[in-house]
Amino acid sequence: MKLNLLSLATLFVASVNSKIFFQEDFSSEDSLSRWVKSESRKDIGEIKLTPGEWSADEKNSIGLTLSEDARFYAYSAPLDSPMSLKDNDLVLQFTVKYQQNIDCGGAYIKLLPPTADPKAFNGDSPYSIMFGPDVCGADSKVHAIINHNDKNNEMIKKPLALKDQLTHQYTLVIKKDKTYEIRLDNSILRNGTIAEDWSIFPPKEISDPSETKPADWDDRKTIPDVTDVKPENYDDIPKQIVDPKAEKPSDWDDDMDGDWEAPLIDNPDYKGEWKQKQIDNPDYKGEWAAKLIPNPDYTEENFLEQSVGFIGIDVWTVKSGTIFDNIILTNDFEEASAFGNKTWADYVQKEIDIKKKIDEEEKIKREEEESIRKKQAEKAQKEEEEMAKLEHVEMPEPANDEKDLELEDELKPEAVNAEAKKEAKEEAKEEAKEEAKEEAKEEAKEAKKETKEHVKEEKEAEKDEL
Ligand SMILES: *[C@@H]1O[C@H](CO)[C@@H](O)[C@H](O)[C@H]1NC(C)=O
Ligand SMILES: *[C@@H]1O[C@H](CO)[C@@H](O)[C@H](O)[C@H]1NC(C)=O
Questions:
Q1: What is the DSSP string of 335-383?
Q2: pLDDT tens digits for 39-93?
Q3: Which residue intervals are annotated with compositional bias (Basic and acidic residues) in the record (predicted)?
Q4: Partner of 347 for a Cys bridge, out of 56, 180, 190, 409, CB 3.0 to 4.6 A?
């Protein structure tokens, strides 16, 4: 009843052409059943429905989760009906949660043709669009690749992806007027024209081929300075001269050693070959360039005329845990916006709050552990110092003393008693020290193992990238 004319009009316009070709929020238990696992290789990782280790809402947060470490994933799901990109604006939107604190892994979606074979789907399969985040080490980007005349074209300047552990919503809009928008969490990350931000079309302007450089065009930046003349006798200055300081050695025997000659040294007056000075050319006209004219061969034909039959996920990840969710492919931004608001926007703040709480709890736990470790280390250190002191005092005793001690043993029981006590005390200390050492060793081993695994994974990822 409260609808005014304007919103009625928008409703009408939206409902005429608006169509959803694919929509999936993974809320149904069998929602993975329409995703076909590729058989293009044997080691494709398993996907699972999970809300992640922590979530804003157990049910709503459930999504398609990459569940195995260091794996390729190649899955696709058919659209409800094929989408002709020739006749429709393209709106592809989905959320990605790198819950695992991503080190290296893609989270993008490919739009596959209706002729695609899901069982053969792999990295080489043709697609019309590839869109979404991709992170590896310090390198983080949002791909927006458009296939044009069988060539995949990356954006000239790719936007950065977010690497935090929250759920982020990525939206790609490509309109029939060849403008585009990339949104991250509802805000425009990039927008503009396809012609400017991808090298898809030929250059709009070219140098006029009918123009030639005029004969009198002076493009010498500098010219010789005619006032600069070569000094007289300049060429007579020798490069080397006889060392004036050299003297004939007193034991030099002309008969035996031959005539003495003083050694040569570099002449300080020698300035090299004479060169005339250069000065700025007052007639310099700059580099010549032909006038730019509109490129007669410019064309934007064939742009995104493919059809889409499948949504494809074809990525590699080192650490598992990436969650894809809330996927929608439509020709109407309003549809995607409404879907995004329902599935993602309403949960964002809750997720941020929960993540903050978890982070704080983990921080407290870490600090407590750190403090315990520090105390243990201090204790071990102190014990070691005391040990060192004791060793110092009692140190070098000749081996023979043992016999003497045995003698003393019988003679002075009290002394031996004290000795035994001391020994027991030392033994206990030694034990404590050994324990602390063992613990530290174990910890170091664990850390080393973790690092080694990580390095191995990184290497594998690198290999894969190559
Ligand atoms: C990009 O977005 C800005 C801000 O919304 C808008 O002013 C501009 O017209 C957009 N550019 C294109 C090419 O759509
Ligand atoms: C979704 O939410 C945003 C932000 O509140 C709002 O601007 C937009 O109109 C909403 N979309 C729809 C279709 O209601």
A1: HHHHHHIIIIIHHHHHHHHHHHHHHHHHHHHHHHHHHHHHHHHHHHHHH
A2: 999 999 999 999 998 888 888 899 999 999 999 999 999 999 999 999 999 999 9
A3: 205-236, 359-395, 419-466
A4: 56
> For residue 395, what pLDDT is reported?
52
Going from the Cα of 91 to the center of ligand 2, the distance in angstroms, rounded, reads 16
Going from the Cα of 381 to the center of ligand 1, the distance in angstroms, rounded, reads: 65
338: CA distance to ligand 1 center in Å?
21
DSSP 237-250: S-SEEE-TT----T
Query: Which of 176, 177, 191 should be mutated for ligand 1, with most atoms under 8 A from CB?
Result: 191
Residue whose CA is closest, atom 5 of ligand 1?
A: 188
Q: 3-class SS at 203?
A: coil
Segment holding 118, helix H or strand E: none
- Ligand lying closest to the C-alpha of residue 193: 1
pLDDT number for residue 394: 56
Average of pLDDT values for 345-350? 88
pLDDT over 70, % of the chain = 84
User: How many A from CA of 192 to the centre of ligand 1?
Assistant: 7
pLDDT of residue 437: 72
CA pair distance 350, 369, nearest whole angstrom: 29
Helix (H) or strand (E) holding 185: none
Does position 336 have pLDDT exceeding 50, yes or no? yes
Split at pLDDT 50, 70, 90, the class of 425 is confident
Alpha carbon 458 to its chain centroid, in Å, reads: 11
CA–CA dist 451, 27 (Å, integer): 37
Token reading at 195: 């012609």
The ligand placed nearest to the CA atom of residue 182 is 1
Domains for the chain: give ranges and CATH numbers.
20-203+304-345 (2.60.120.200)
196 lines ligand 1 (CB under 6 A): no
Testing ligand 2's pocket by substitution, the residue of 337, 348, 349 carrying the most ligand atoms inside 8 A of its CB is 337
Whether residue 197 is predicted with pLDDT greater than 70 in this model: the reply is: yes
For ligand 1, is residue 202 a contact (CB within 6 Å)?
A: no
- Which residues, 6+ apart, have CB-to-CB distance to 140 below 8 Å? 133, 134, 160, 161, 162, 163
Distance 307 CA to ligand 2 centre (A): 29
